[in-house]
Design a protein that fits this description.
Layout: H1 9-18, H2 34-55, H3 59-70, H4 72-75, H5 80-86, H6 92-110, H7 114-137, H8 163-177, H9 182-206, H10 211-227, H11 232-256, H12 275-284, E1 305-306, E2 309-310
Antiparallel strand pairs: 1-2
Helix pairs in contact: 2-10, 5-9, 6-7, 6-8, 7-8, 7-10, 7-11, 8-9, 8-10, 9-10
Amino acid sequence: MRTERTLTRLDRVFTRLDREPERPAHIDVPKMSRHRVALFAGTLAFYLAIVWLVVITSWLVRLDWQVMFFRPYQQWAGIHWFVDYYVVLGQRGPTAVMVAAWLGWRSWRQHTLRPLLTLGTSLLLLNITVGAAKIGMGRLGPHYATAIGSNEMGLGGDIFPSGHTANAVVTWGILAYLASTPAARRWLSALSAVVSLGVGMATVYLGTHWLSDVLLGWAAGLLILLALPWFEPLMARAEAGIFDLRDRWRARRGSTAPAPLSPVEAPVLLKPCPAGQNETAARSVRAPVYLTPGPHTARSERTPVTPVGSRRPPQSDRVTRGTASPTRPLTGG
């Protein structure tokens, strides 16, 4: 009697993973609405205002110096070990690997490259915009400051805006941007905001960034997330091009591959031949004379026969066993 094996929870998980769904057609692709354009314009104005306040060495620069002299890492030394680990959530390498692994799995399951293309586009924009601003303004960090009260601009530094903060905003905010439901988008937006806020404050606590660096990093990351809908058509064309290349490669590979062998050969159709050809074919396939069956004889009476003939010399006086031998003529003497 055959009994079915009871599936465990792990078996059910793998069974569910094996069922690859079709490519979803209800994905809500964000569009550049008026609300988003207004947020983008407001964030850009905030970005430019921070840069201007630092350039003119305003009250924001004085606040930077006050926070630096406060030395948070000495005031709250007990949480230093936790902040050292928490700030990793803003580093490019670890966060990009974790998020890319998750989005890669989503791309495989949903049969679409949009999650990975969105992540790649956002990181490319982050490197271009934040990297250009860092190099262009060349601000030194608190640990390398040269003059008390100065803005430390144009001295070959690379900390304005904060790369950790901008990377945290973009990397974790991309999960909210790609959320499939409004509820998930709200929860992930709140989570990414808390994580990026914590990463920015962690850099200020450790003394690696000014407070204004963090403010500008938040604005830089938010600008990238708000501008992503402008790049959606480009990502859609890139995805279509990649899939087209894949299909052509598969077709070329299939045309050059040898045809698979069929386990059952196709039947051969026999054409009827004229009567004369049938008789000729019958003669050609007739067994040789030396293999043609004849009358049954005793073993002792048989002559060994080979394809080249008998190996015994002819004997005219040999008599078959069981028959009377002919009388020989008597010779007188």
